[in-house]
Amino acid sequence: MRNAEIAEAMSELATLYELDGAIRYRVLAYREAARVIRQSPVSIEELARDGRATELPGIGETLQQKIVDLLDTGEIPAAAKLKAKYPASLIEVTRIPGLGAKTVRRLYDELGVSSLDDLREAAESEKIRDLKGLGARVEENVLAALARLGEEGPAERLLLSEVLPIAEQLAETLREHPASDQVTVAGSARRMAETCKDIDLIATASDPKALSAALVEHELAAQAGTAGDAGTRITTFNGVSVDLRIVAPDAYGNLLQHFTGSAKHNVELRERAVRMGLSVSEHGITEVESGDVVRYADEAEVYERLGLAYIEPELREGNGEIAAAAAGELPGLVEITDIRGDLHCHTTLSDGRNTPEEMAAAARARGYSYLAVTDHSASHGFGNHVTPEALLERVEEVAAYNASNPGRFRLLAGSEVNILPDGSLDYEPAVLQRLDWVMASVHTSFRISEKRMTERVIEALRNPHVDCIGHLTGRLIGKREPYGVDVGAVIDAAVQNRKLIEINGNPNRRDLNEGYARLAAQAGLPIVVNTDAQGVDTLSNMTYGIATARRAWLTKRDVANTRSWRELLKLRGRRS
DNA sequence: GCCGTTTTCGGCCCGACTGTTTTCAGTCG
Questions:
Q1: Sign of CA dihedral A360, A361, A364, A366
Q2: Model pLDDT for residues A28-39, shown as the tens digit of each residue
Q3: Is the CB atom of residue A104 positioned under 7 angstroms from any atom of strand B?
């Protein structure tokens, strides 16, 4: 059973318990467990079968047993019992914004509302206002929420690449405004998360209202609230909602820390504060006993006051960073400026838009000392494939380029070779042998079993000509689920065969994801951060690859392409 | 239900906003 399915069962049970009036901390415990399970890079099924699920934070003996029950019988007895008590369609009603479990339970008990249809009818026939504490306004909000649900579905999360450029453009506009002092992008965009729900901008200003007005009047604003002293909110034409919060300079650090999140990180931070006799909020740090409040202009001072080293935004996910900061054991994260080359990109030979010469020029302009052109192999299946003859011509072409462009930069002849369903590659060894660098990726036959997919990739890792596995799980964020593959087993096989593995920086992929990348690094597997660029413009997707690497706690040393080409070659198993 | 450099029991983050109420519960981020 996939982690996502187990997490979904826990999350459902949390809602059922909540409807049943369980104490909130039990509900919270199940929600937290669901989050931990969903995020885990290792198989919860295997862990629970070994009785080791309790090794995860937030999972104790009770949940360990419930997971085993779920695996054995397909359901959790406690959930089955509650489902007999409350109709399954009641859970959907709790998804209406503004209606929590308490309210839904009352609607069920007092009005017999047990589905979204019942809810609509109750609101339309003005029965909700009969309940104590609820009024006509609630009916209006419910109907509006139901209408939104009907036309557009639940609010989608946007890719970081869709959000970050807008966030930076807006921040830049505000920075140029005469009334502005400091402006920073906060929230999940600052943490470089895979997806973002909205944009948070944090600012200080000599004239807050004027700065708010500048955002309201921005050409990207399709809708806008009122421009106030505390900030404002707009929605851009492509539907991204943007919150601007303006604060006095002396509390800028507190506000920035608070609105950078994540929620989990902030909760852990405040729990630590409580143990120190302190209370942390966006307004400052209060000494509980004396009631004295201290504000911090600089975010780093907030962490310092709590006895912590500064924590980079990418690490603020509640994955052990606070304990590491307390112990002085935070990793020195890899920086984009550490990157010395890109080992996965395409040219006009397959599906790219630029020639090798143009790609090389762009790579040099980025300060790289090497670039591998890795066009798709013969059986790619989407046209534009490269025959063995064409690939050998490419080898000559690359040699000629390097001969006529002496110096520090080296163009590398490579290929992104398809891994066929049986794990073989679709070029002969004699062809592969001529290449400087071989990426091997799965592009077809996704729907085989996890076992076969794992064997398929491991077979490719045994091939002496393969250097690196590309986009291992094949996911497209928000569009295509990763295919079933035992990442842990692939990591082990890669280490054994002295291969490398890629973080693909295409913002739709970010594959390996941060959880798996952290696992790979812990196993000692060298990671290559690549772009998979299809043109000179997308070589800049290194930003997203590095974001994932940093969120995976990777250091410069963990990332192979922070090395010179000569040093990098020492990491791989085959003869060069 | 989980967890432990105050605790194996008694705690478990903080504040804004909303809608309904004359002081607050519920919901959300």
A1: negative
A2: 999 999 999 999
A3: yes
